[in-house]
Amino acid sequence: MADLVKAARIGFASEFAFYLKAHNFHWNVEGPDFSEFHSFFGDIYEEVQGSVDEFAENIRKLDAYAPGSFSAFSSLSVISEANEPMDAMSMAATLAQDAVKMAELCAMVYKLAEADGEFGFANFLADRQDAYRKHAWMLRSTLK
């Protein structure tokens, strides 16, 4: 169970970091396709934001604590921060790469949850993997 808790905390911190990055891009996108990208990034961050609380609750169900500070998120997350301004297509490319990372991370945590008999958590992670795969597909399609 210790491996699952450690991986779940990494997954949760990464989920929050992905949410924050998408929200950052929603706020700061510019250019001739502003309206489309602003809306697109908004759809992504809202979907991810909708899962954050449930992710934390799944960690609490394991009798562990969910990380809850920016320093914890930063030290645990596999998603890097985006501190420098970038154009809309670079934002989309960055999120596409991050969505693939998140899908892979969800799959890894899923395997641990399933092995530990945490089937409800595993189902949640399977749904998150599917959501990230959809985000990656839509972002990749935008880049063509």
Describe the protein's architecture and organization:
The chain starts with a helix and ends with a helix. With 144 residues, the chain is mainly α. Helices cover 80% and strands 0% of the residues. It has one domain (2-143): Ferritin, core subunit, four-helix bundle (Ferritin, Up-down Bundle), CATH 1.20.1260.
Blueprint of the fold:
Elements: H1 2-28, H2 34-61, H3 70-76, H4 88-115, H5 119-143
Helix pairs in contact: 1-2, 1-3, 1-4, 2-5, 4-5
Short description:
Helices cover about 80% and strands about 0% of the residues.
Keyword list:
single chain, 144 residues, mainly alpha, Ferritin, elongated
Secondary-structure element order, N to C: HHHHH
Number of strands: 0
What is the CATH class name? Mainly Alpha
| Count of helix runs | 5
Domains (count): 1
- Low-confidence segments: none
β-strand percent reads: under 5%
The overall pLDDT, averaged over residues, is 97
> What is the correct CATH architecture?
Up-down Bundle
Task: Write the CATH fold name.
Answer: Ferritin
Integer-rounded radius of gyration = 15 Å
Gross geometry? elongated
**What is the straight-line distance between the termini?**
42 Å
Structural class: mainly alpha
CATH-assigned homologous superfamily: Ferritin, core subunit, four-helix bundle
**Largest β-sheet summary:** none
Helical content stands at over 70%
